[in-house]
Amino acid sequence: MRRPAKDSAGRSSVTNNTTRGKEASGDPDPDLDPSWIDQVRRGLVAWYERSSRDLPWRSDRDPYRILVSETMLVQTTVAAVVPYFERFLKRFPTLSALAEAEEAEVLKAWEGLGYYRRARQLHAAAKQVVALHGGKIPDDPESVRALPGVGRYIAGAVLSFAFDRPAPIVEANTQRVLARWLAWRGDLKASSTQARLWQAAERLVPAQRAGVFNQAFMELGALICTPRAPSCLLCPVAEVCRARALGLQDVLPIVSPRPSPLQAVEACALVVRDGRILIVKRGPNRLWEGFWEFPTIHVSGADPAGRSFEGRGPVELGEGVRLLAGIEIEIGARLQTVTFGVTKHRVKLDAFEARGLDESLTPGPGVVEARWVRPESLADYLFGSAGRQLIAGLARRSLGD
Predict the structure, then answer these.
(1) Is residue 233 part of a domain?
(2) Which of 133, 310, 346, 370 is least enclosed by beta carbons within 10 angstroms?
(3) Residue 202 annotated in active site
(4) Whole domain around residue 293: which residue ranges?
(5) Catalytic annotation, pick one of 49, 70, 105, 239
(6) Could you tell me if residue 7 is inside a domain?
C-alpha cells in the first residue's frame, strides 16, 4: 500500500490537501482561528489609520456626540447625516441642552431626516441620562442598553467608540462584511444568520482599541466591501475573505427581497381664507404625532396614518375637512400630486385648492389644533416630507382667496 507523502514538518500531504480544501470551500468558522482573527484586526486597523474619512463625530470621543450620530445614521447615509448632525449639535450642544428642550424643538431640528421616532427616543434617552446618571452617559453595557432607542448596535458603538469597551457591532455595513468573510450563505434577515454574525463580531472585537477596530470594520463596509461590486483589490484583508476565495463576493450576502409596498391614496385641501391657509396638528398615538399638515383624508388602499373616520365609510374631501377642522369649504382644481414612502407603504397624495366658507375652527378626530397661518410662516411649523413638498409648490404659485 502506498503511504501518503510527508511534508517537511512530517505532516501528511493528504491532511494538508484536506485543510486547504476546507479553507477554499469556505470554512464556516474561521473566526475560531486566532491567526485569522489577528490578521483581520491588524489589516483593518492599519488600513483605517491611513484611509479613514474625516467625519464630524470622529473629532473626539464624546459619548453624547457618538449617541447622536449613531442614532441619526440608522437607515440613513453618512452624506445625508453630516449637515443634520452639525445643525443639531449647534442647537443642542450638550446632552443637558437636549434633555431640557421641548419635543417640538427636537423634532423641528430633526425635520427632513426622517424616521422621527429616532428623534423622540434620543430626546427620551437624554432625559433618562440626566435623571438617572447625573447627565453623563454611563459606560456599562446594562445602563447603556436601558436607554430608550438604544439597541445592541448603538450600545456597541457608544461603548467602544467613547469608552473603548470591547463591545461588538453588527449593522448594515458590518453584517455584509461578516457574511462575505465567513462565506455565509444563509438569508441575511434570518435570526440564525444574525446570531452567527453577532457571534463572529464578538470574537473579532479586540480587548484593546476596540473603538478603532469597530470604526475600521464599519468603514470597510462603507467604502470597500460595498453591496454591489465590492473593491476586493483594494481590501486590506481580501486574502482572508472566504467569499472571495470562492468567487462569491458578488453573490453574498443573500438577502430575501423586500415585499412590494402597500399602495395608499390620500387627498388634502389647501384651504385659503383672507390670505391665510388652514393647517391642522396631528393628535397623539398616531403616525406623525405632533406634526402639522394640510387637512388630509384617506381615499383608497392601505391607511398607514389611520385617517379613516371611525363609524363612517369613505368620505369626500369636503366632508373630511369639515370633520377635521369644523368648517365648510369649496373645492377647486387639483394643484399637485406628491408620492412618498412611509413604513411599508407607498402613498400618493393629491392636493386640491379650496376656499374656506367660514373662519371659526373646531378640531375634529385625530386633530389637536387647527390654525389659519400666513403662507410665508409655514416654514416655522413642523411638517412631514409630503407637507414640505406642498409648501415648496405653494411658494411657486399664488393661491387665490
Answers:
(1) yes
(2) 310
(3) no
(4) 262-395
(5) 70
(6) no
